[in-house]
Amino acid sequence: MALDMRRVIDPDTYFDHNSPPTNLGWAHDEVDKFIKAQSPDQRIVLVTSGGTTVPLENNTVRFVDNFSAGTRGSCSAEQFLAMGYAVIFLYREQSLQPFNRNYSHNTKGVLSFLERTNGQIRIKPEWEEKMGQDLDNYQKYTQENKLLMVNFTTLSDYLFLLREVSLLVASLGPRVMFYLAAAVSDFFIPSHSLSEHKIQSATGDLTLHMNQVPKFLRPLVKNWAPLCFIVSFKLETDPELLGPKARHALEKYGHQVVIANMLHTRKFQVWLFTKEEAMRPAVIQISQDDLDAGRDIEQDLVEELARRHQQYISSTLQQD
Ligand code: PMT
């Protein structure tokens, strides 16, 4: 079927014209098992994390990436687990993962937590406690069925997986939170317009025409998971745009919370926008000293969201 890609397509049309990821069936079965293993009042959160890629070729050598290391998502997942949530972690392959993030992307240097003593490789004493806690927590949460990790790479992988997981958890209603921290592409090249093979440089400059990706928050809030507690993120680099764009998202999609953050201060300051606090958003902030002392803003952020989620669950129970 021919498709006019100059206009913004609707989400269903997007799915009709793109192929699902190879792990979709596996993800369906694992999420299904995961939610069936939870007790009836268990709070569950879907954390999305990392950036989506948009391929420029079908046999992909080059792609456009969205900025996100996965710090927000992986750190938040750890906090949600500590607060008693069961976590489905939908993450970009090779981005930061809970309990592994301090070792896979160690800012103090590659393998700097190891040393060789008398010919034996061992963990440096100053790392032992932290590593031991991370290992214990990771093993405990996976064995107790409290952490499930599902990975994506491309925009299309992400959208298929997001829809699949949303439809599966939707029946659990208000006790499910969506925490959409992944950085999702706003532009893509439709699969029928993609070059089959590596684009050749011999032809000179490259001009790309990218189409707008439909906003998937709309079907998520309205159709896929209408009873769940939905938190989206708004990332901007221009401070003038942040508040207006966060308010606009709330009005347009009608979900519960928008967390606004600026690219360069995202580790120190975030604003929580809700319908009631649209003009006076709650601010959560930490200092550089806090950060240097190993404190993450996600601790306060997740605590605050868990509190609001609990209020949401209680208010929907009262309505029933
Ligand atoms: O991982 P870190 O390095 O720690 O960085 C964290 C972060 C800055 C990436 C994170 O805090 C953040 O802001 N994530 C959202 C980034 C983003 O995609 O913002 P946006 O303004 O493009 O999208 C806003 C919302 O719309 C998002 O919740 C997204 O899930 C949703 N969206 C986006 C595009 C699209 N086509 N459909 C969507 O539904």
UniProtKB/TrEMBL annotation:
UniProt-listed Gene3D superfamilies: CoaB-like (3.40.50.10300)
GO molecular function: ligase activity
Lyase keyword on record: no
Entry annotated with the keyword Ligase: yes
Enzyme class: ligase
Keyword set, alphabetical order: Ligase
Top-level taxon in the UniProt lineage: Eukaryota
Biological processes per GO annotation: coenzyme A biosynthetic process
Pfam families, per database record: DFP
Domain DNA/pantothenate metabolism flavoprotein C-terminal span(s) in chain numbering: 178-266
EC identifiers of the protein: 6.3.2.51
InterPro entries according to UniProt: CoaB-like_sf, DNA/pantothenate-metab_flavo_C
Family listed: Belongs to the PPC synthetase family.
Protein name: Phosphopantothenate--cysteine ligase cab2
Source organism (scientific name): Coemansia spiralis
Lineage: Eukaryota, Fungi, Fungi incertae sedis, Zoopagomycota, Kickxellomycotina
Gene label: CAB2
